[in-house]
Amino acid sequence: MRTRGRIFIVGLVLAGAVGLLAASCNRRGGSRGVAPAAAMPVVEAPRRTLPPLPSRPLSPRLRAMRERAMAKTARARGLEWRGEVGMTELSGWEYGTRTKEIADVLATDDLKGLSQLAVAGGMLPGGTDLAALAVSFTAATAGATYSPLDKQVLLVAEGPKGAFKDEALLTHELVHALQDQHFDLLQLLLARPYNFDRAEALFALVEGDAMSVERRLQFGEEWARQTPEQMARREEERFAPYRRGIGALFPPLLTETFVFRYRDGLRFVESMRRARPPFSADELFRRPPASSEQVLHPEKYAAGEQPRAVSLSVEGFTRAGWRLSAATPIGEIGVRGVLLAGVPSEEAARAAAGWGGDRALLFERAGRAPLFVWQTTWDRAADAQEFYRSFNNLQRQRSAPEVLAFVPADAEQQAWRDGGVLTHVRLEGDAVLVLRGDADDVAEALQLIKP
């Protein structure tokens, strides 16, 4: 979908607005050196079904627009249509209603857990409800979207007399329809276990593919002469009005991951198309990127570099009465988004670039505040030190330093007090551990995490 005012392209469906996509790891094929993810996800069917859309015929003008756009999209994308694509024009009110209905079908406990984890970790403001944010954002900004639940492109009528006119936007959404017909977007969408980092990587592929087709149709040879880096800078410039406008109303973590899908997704797809030997977009869908790091650094995708496994035993927490209620990697783009809340963009990107792997966990215990545990590992000890410094710079913007009772000789530590919440940051070799919660619970967690 595209925001009203023709500022930029937004995405696929409600779920994408909050990072619900999870990459499919069960597709094989090809002879590339790109290793698939280690665990095969489970695919869950939607728990509810949607009510029918309003039944109304398309105008002759919209039917002709659809036929032209379908033909152009198929040629540019290099895929044939396997069936007709439905299209329904809705009023703004009807579109908002449909957005809520899609949320009711697709929103899962994963999204609720992600909201709670991010709030407990200080990554999002208290009380943030990602599902509600997604509904309001999508309803307020959409011009059109492809819904894999409806198998239709939903158009938002422009003005009281309707008359949707944006053929370029329609082409973008039809790329998503082609993706769905050939690669089953719902299967990708509903893969479990949920993984935020892998989800962002997949969504960058979905949107980067659509952006690549749209820009090639728009700019032709001019576009082909640009490097992927020039393309990414151009898209960043297109997002400037968004960052100053509606994007400024959202936490940096959400704004940055949103922009990432278009800017860096496009750069990733174009980089792989121009690699030697080249990767087709179809190959990328058959073996999706496993992490946002692979999208940000396409050479790591080509080399098959996977995220480092981060193991943190929960058995000690369970014996102590804690219940694990959410867990996910945040990824390089997530680290960057977190840091942007308090450090300059160049520093945030540089500090996140050495990411090797991570796992964020949320523990709950009756009568206690939530406990956030974030274990990160880095490519080198120097990368861990850089993240440690930047993360403490972020804490310095909003917290007061806390005096530590002890500092082991083999680790560097810092603690920060924000009201009744303590954030403890520990650097040890190529790893950084972040704990956030009640001071007594943080002290207990430090003992439970000991090797």
Enumerate how many helices there are, as a single number. 20
Number of beta strands: 12
Largest sheet: 7 strands, antiparallel
Please indicate the count of domains: 2
Q: Identify the overall geometry.
A: globular
Strand order of the largest sheet: 6-7-8-12-11-10-9
Average pLDDT, rounded to a whole number, is: 84
- The percent of residues in helical segments reads 40-55%
Description:
This protein has helices spanning 14-17, 60-77, 92-106, 109-120, 130-141, 167-183, 185-189, 196-219, 221-224, 228-238, 240-244, 252-273, 281-286, 292-296, 298-302, 315-319, 331-339, 345-352, 381-398, 439-448; strands spanning 42-43, 86-90, 144-147, 152-156, 191-192, 323-328, 355-364, 371-378, 400-402, 412-418, 421-428, 431-437. By secondary structure, it is an alpha+beta fold. The protein folds into 2 domains: 14-48 and 55-302, no CATH class; 315-448, Protein Transport Mog1p, Chain A (3-Layer(aba) Sandwich). It has a 7-stranded antiparallel β-sheet with strand order 6-7-8-12-11-10-9, sandwiched between helices. A 3-stranded mixed β-sheet has the order 2-4-3. Helix 17 packs antiparallel against helix 18 (345-352). The longest helix has 24 residues, at 196-219. Residues 1-43 have low confidence and may be disordered.
